[in-house]
């Protein structure tokens, strides 16, 4: 088991301590008869066969306890609270919608002003479409009866 050059060691063997089984007291077995013997039912099928078995009682639900009556005032207060919350929520949504619509219309107006202003700037500052026309220096011109005089 060990190679020749290793000294042999003493091996201790530990035996497990057995655990005693639990004490079980056996109760006497007493056969118990059911409270009543179920009735046997036989049914004759249309083809002549007879089926025999125990009748099963239908499960009856527990009787429903009467609910306490809710007063009309409490019902009206509850419905009024729900209606009030619905109206508040609707007004909040309406004001949010109006604010968003106002901002959208304002942005459309700004977009139109910037676009139209850009178009005017291109018309004024851009190259003129016709050649051979007269260039007028407006700073030196004198306007008299719809005529330019230089």
Write out the strand line-up for the largest beta sheet, numbering strands in chain order: 1-2
Major sheet description: 2 strands, antiparallel
Distance between the termini: 129 Å
Roughly what fraction of the amino acids lie in strands?
5-15%
Gyration radius from CA atoms, angstroms:
53 Å
Helix run count: 1
Structural class: alpha+beta
Give a quick rundown of the structure.
The chain is an alpha+beta fold and 150 residues long. Helix content is 36%, strand content 11%.
Describe this structure in words.
The chain is α+β, with helices and mostly antiparallel strands. The chain has one helix spanning 72-125; strands at residues 40-44, 50-54, 142-144, 147-149. A two-stranded antiparallel sheet has the order 1-2. The chain has a two-stranded antiparallel ribbon with strand order 3-4. Strand 1 (40-44) and strand 2 (50-54) form a beta hairpin. The longest helix is centred in the middle third of the chain and has 54 residues, at 72-125.
């Amino acid at each position: 088991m060990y190679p020749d050059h290793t000294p042999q060691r003493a091996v201790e063997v530990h035996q497990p301590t057995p655990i005693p089984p639990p004490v079980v007291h056996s109760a006497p077995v007493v056969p118990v008869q059911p409270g009543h013997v179920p009735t046997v039912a036989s049914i004759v099928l249309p083809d002549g066969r007879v089926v025999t078995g125990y009748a099963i009682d239908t499960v009856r639900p527990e009787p429903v306890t009467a609910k306490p009556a809710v007063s009309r005032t409490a019902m009206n207060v509850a419905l009024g609270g729900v209606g009030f919350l619905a109206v508040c929520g609707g007004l909040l949504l309406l004001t949010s919608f109006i604010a968003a619509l106002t901002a959208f219309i304002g942005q459309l107006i700004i977009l139109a002003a910037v676009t139209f202003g850009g178009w005017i700037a291109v018309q004024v500052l851009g190259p003129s479409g016709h050649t051979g026309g007269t260039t007028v220096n407006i700073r030196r011109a004198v306007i008299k009866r719809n005529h330019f005089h230089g």
